Structures are given as C-alpha cells and as structure tokens.
C-alpha cells in the first residue's frame, strides 16, 4: 500500500509541470501597463472617413478615433496621449490578443464567435450598422433584388462575405463573389468596374462615397440592409477593470448627451443641484474611485471630445448618414446608458 501511495504521489508530481503549462494565464493588468508607458495604444482602421482616417497633418480623425481619445482622457486625463495603430481586418484581432494594442476601435462587428473563440470581449456599441450594397448609378439598379447574377466585391473572411452569400441564397439569386484581402483593393476594383456592386457595412459604403469628391454622385447606396452589424470597442477578455473603464466611457458619452452636457458648457454644470449631474461631474458618489479613476473622469471625457451626439455630428453626419437607430433611446434610437450611480 505504501509503495502504491508513493507511486501515485510521484506520478502527480511529474504531472504538475504539464498542468501548469496548460493552465490559463492570468489576465494582464492593462490599466497598469498604460499608466506605466503614459500612452494608450489604440487599433483603428487605416483610412475610413468618418471613423478613423488621417487628416492632412497625419492626425487620425473620426468616430472611432475620438473613442480612443475619450478613453485616454478618462484614464490618463489627456486625450492626446494615444498612439493610433492602423490595422487591416486580418491584423486587428491578432494585434489585440498579442498585446500590441490595448484597445481595438475599428468598425468591428460584435458576434458570438468572436467573443467565444478569440478571447476578446466587446465593451459596447458605438454604431448600430448593417450590410448594404453600393452600385454605380449607370447600372440602373435601384434594389438589391435586381442583383441576380451580379458580381459583388467583398472582403475575404469578413462577416460581410457570409451575410451576402446568405442573402443571395435565401432569395434564390446567383452570386459571383469577387474577393479581396483589404478594403483599399476592394475600392479600387469597384471604381475600375471589376464588379457590379460593392458590399460592406453601410457606414463603410457611405465613407467610400464621401471620399470620391466630385464623383460621389456616380454611386448610389441601395435601400436594403441585410444584416445586423453592431460595431464597438473591443478588449481582451478577463481584464475586468480595463473592460469597465472602456464600457463606462461609452456610457458617459451617452449620459452627457442625455443631460445636454457639451464640450462647450461642461464646466457650467459644476454647480448643478441635480443629483445625477453631481455624480457625473464627480462632486458626489465617488464613482471615479470605484473604477480606479479620478472622480471627475466623465467631465474630462466630455471636455476632451464632447458628448456622443457631438462626436457623431462632427464625423458621421458629413457622410450624409442619418443617425436613425443610433439616436438616444429618448429619441427613438437604441443608444441607452445604464444609470451612473
């Protein structure tokens, strides 16, 4: 019996190193890493007008770019302490998983498989979108139902590729997919007439059209929206302190719009007697300390980039895109923030 026990103990001891190797690693402390380097590394699209696109001085502008700035303002107190990392669709998840970036805000669709398989988690939705189709006006097509047998430019491996295939199959239409690895190749091919239609998120299609200058009128966006594409910021799963900061920064932008707190008037709310606004401004409640931030973190966010509506109007409205379901819940939209208390 003693020899059996001794053997079992020896077997268990020999297995421990292997067990240790297969055990999941503890999540990195992203907040501490960002504070130590004094800068947020934020992954964005290389060039999508309205979301993240470099201006004439090389400074990234857009809805997603301002979300990176808002998070930097919340954590570091300075919206300019951001290093923007332009990433292709193929690079984005690997870069986040490997710790090359702290945050991904790149017009990325929230799906079950991405959360369940990639070790990532979405912290909210900053744009409720859907796949659509764009065609040249000269094609004479006014509905996606007229695209039977059409060639469609698509990004390989994207949610759009699957959505378009499903749509054509469901409507018993023939599809000729023309696949490319990156968005610039798709746009060039579509302009060159290599495909009849270009399919992507409607926001991406609107950004493409806006970038065509005097030729923008040659392209039309068809009315059908064939999928749900909730886009939002993404972080690594398991680092809940960092997740909470990113998520509540999004909610702070919405809450500010609900209360009419803007980049221009935020300081005038410092003496408000409204309990909700007192908590928002950091005068009561210690909400910032609960997140590991300064109590006036939300005010710093609005002071830096404005509220959600201001960010939208600055970057998305010029694309000719109606706010629609991206409006606040009080105006018939889906944007809704939990109470900050």
Summarize the helices and strands and which ones pair or pack.
Layout: H1 2-22, H2 30-37, E1 40-44, E2 53-54, E3 60-61, H3 63-76, E4 82-86, H4 92-97, E5 103-104, H5 112-117, E6 120-122, E7 127-129, E8 131-136, E9 150-155, H6 159-170, E10 175-180, H7 183-191, E11 197-201, H8 202-210, E12 219-221, E13 229-231, E14 234-236, H9 240-259, H10 275-281, H11 287-291, H12 297-305, H13 308-315
Helix pairs in contact: 3-9, 3-12
Describe this structure in words.
By secondary structure, this protein is of the alpha/beta class. The protein has two domains: 30-128 and 231-331, D-Maltodextrin-Binding Protein, domain 2 (3-Layer(aba) Sandwich); 131-227, Periplasmic binding protein-like II (D-Maltodextrin-Binding Protein, domain 2). Helices cover 39% and strands 16% of the residues. The protein contains 13 helices and 14 strands. The chain has helices spanning 2-22, 30-37, 63-76, 92-97, 112-117, 159-170, 183-191, 202-210, 240-259, 275-281, 287-291, 297-305, 308-315; strands spanning 40-44, 53-54, 60-61, 82-86, 103-104, 120-122, 127-129, 131-136, 150-155, 175-180, 197-201, 219-221, 229-231, 234-236. A five-stranded mixed sheet has the order 10-9-11-8-12, sandwiched between helices. The N and C termini lie far apart (62 Å).
């Amino acid at each position: 019996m003693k020899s059996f026990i001794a053997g079992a103990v020896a077997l268990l001891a020999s297995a421990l190193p292997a067990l240790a190797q297969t055990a999941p690693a503890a999540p990195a402390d992203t907040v501490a890493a960002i504070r130590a380097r004094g800068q947020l590394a934020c992954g964005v699209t290389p060039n999508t007008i309205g979301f993240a696109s470099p201006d004439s001085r090389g400074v990234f502008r857009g809805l997603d770019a301002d979300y990176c700035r808002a998070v930097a303002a919340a954590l570091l107190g300075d919206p300019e302490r951001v290093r923007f990392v332009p990433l292709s669709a193929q690079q984005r998840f690997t870069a986040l998983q490997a710790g090359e970036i702290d945050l991904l805000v790149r017009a990325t669709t929230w799906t079950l498989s991405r959360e369940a398989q990639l070790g990532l988690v979405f912290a909210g939705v900053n744009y409720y979108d859907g796949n659509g189709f764009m065609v040249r006006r000269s094609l004479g097509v006014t509905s996606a139902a007229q695209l039977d047998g059409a060639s469609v430019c698509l990004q390989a491996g994207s949610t759009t590729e699957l959505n378009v295939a499903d749509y054509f199959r469901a409507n018993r239409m023939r599809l000729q997919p023309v696949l490319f690895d990156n968005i610039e190749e798709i746009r060039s091919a579509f302009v060159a007439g290599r495909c009849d239609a270009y399919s992507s998120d409607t926001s991406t299609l609107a950004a493409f059209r806006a970038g065509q200058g005097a030729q923008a009128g040659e392209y039309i966006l068809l009315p059908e929206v064939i999928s749900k594409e909730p886009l939002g910021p993404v972080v690594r799963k398991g680092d809940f302190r960092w997740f909470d900061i990113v998520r509540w920064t999004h909610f702070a932008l919405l809450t500010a719009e609900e209360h009419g707190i803007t980049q221009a008037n935020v300081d005038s709310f410092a003496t408000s007697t409204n309990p909700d606004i007192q908590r928002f401004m950091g005068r009561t409640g210690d909400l910032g300390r609960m997140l590991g931030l300064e109590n006036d973190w939300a005010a710093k966010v609005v002071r830096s980039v404005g509220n959600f509506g201001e960010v939208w109007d600055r970057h998305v409205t010029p694309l000719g895109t109606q706010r629609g379901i991206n409006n606040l819940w009080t105006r018939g939209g889906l944007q809704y923030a939990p109470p900050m208390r």
